[in-house]
Amino acid sequence: MALLLIIYSVITTISVLILIIGLYQKNTNTICQSKRRLDGKTVLVTGGTSGMGLEVATDFARRGARVIVACPFQEEGISGKESIIWNSGNKNVVFEHLDLSKYDSVKKFAANIIENETRLDILVNNAGVSISKITKDGFNMIMQVNYLGTILLTFLLLPLLEKSGDEEEPSRIINTASVSHNVGKVDFDSWKTKTGIPFQYYANSKLCLSLFTRELSKRLKGSKVVVNAIDPGVVGTRIYKIGTNYILGSLVVFFATYFSKDPWEGAQTAIHASVCEKARKISGEYFFNCKVTKKTKLPWFNDIKVNKALWDNTLEAIDQKLPIN
Prior knowledge:
By secondary structure, the protein is of the alpha/beta class. Helices cover about 50% and strands about 10% of the residues. An eight-stranded mixed sheet has the order 3-2-1-4-5-6-7-8, sandwiched between helices. Helix 4 runs parallel beside helix 5 and helix 6 (about 200-220) packs across helix 10. It is globular, with a radius of gyration of 19 Å.
């Protein structure tokens, strides 16, 4: 009986804490206030056909941009495109197939963009997965989609981004990070394994993406491209249902949506970093709730040796070099 009372007390305490944190989150969520139009601009959102990415892409379409959305699922892609057109009234929306878990797909996609698009002003690297398995390229799928494939795509599109920007209005790269990076590790050996907890791979991928964002910004200094990472917060999207226990994932989505952020709320920081006039020359920073924050794992960010090793190992893994000076 005493044990049951203890368990009940613990569960009650945890539930109350979740409720308090959730209410705090809901009351502190911020909304992008910029009314800036994007007429004449071209934007690309990976994972822009569902969840938070769909909200970002729809917002860009409402601002008048040419919007390219990319995902590996044909039916979802067509549906997402139609949703954006319907909700924005902007017909200048294109869906392109992209599978970040396959280097060949990334290269084919990038080549198509370079050949057929005259400009690219904003790249939002939003796509992410939580499925831990080995891809045909020999990497853990979470690491390849969330990090390596994303960096490869970024490198291949950098020349077009550089061409489209100018000193007063640089092109922008927005990388979707996560608060989970605080429990992540830079573990090069794990890039080609699938053992362990999927969440750890997810956290590792987001840490690597955050660190690489800052390192890339240093190397792009003086160019016409800026790059930043954004933390959307805990957002109720389907990613929690895939690659984990479906029932548990569904509960997480429910609590995240109603006690933290729904996809529209989660999209606001990515939108802010993409369009806000005050953010146009900021580079190498980490945004949370529509402002630059130091809510990051600072020891990692300031470790020159770790960042240099990450840069070198990443370029080796994607077999690329920085395409612009």
